[in-house]
Amino acid sequence: xxxxxxxxxxxxxxxxxxxxxxxxxxxxxxxxxxxxxxxxxxxxxxxxxxxxxxxxxxxxxxxxxxxxxxxxxxxxxxxxxxxxxxxxxxxxxxxxxxxxxxxxxxxxxxxxxxxxxxxxxxxxx
Length: 125
Fold this sequence. Notes:
The chain is mainly alpha-helical. Helices cover 65% and strands 0% of the residues.
């Protein structure tokens, strides 16, 4: 029985969609809960939002195929882009801001890497 028949396996498109949704959701939910202009100005971002997204990244690493876990670098750029669009402050430098914010996704990429190492190894039959 192939591993795909025994375990949840996310294809690349699913991982990308989940990563973007995590970033957008992180910004929108924390903004709605706290009322802050930017989600990361709220304590909820640091105490609730980031840990939840880190666990989600770990799960995506476990459930993704091969090295698709690397797409978790999209989480923070998605959040930053959502923040800029929502606040109406998207300017000509937004691509640079989104690209540089991918560096801030390092903890999520690390969590996904750990998750990828926890995947069951298929036995040769």
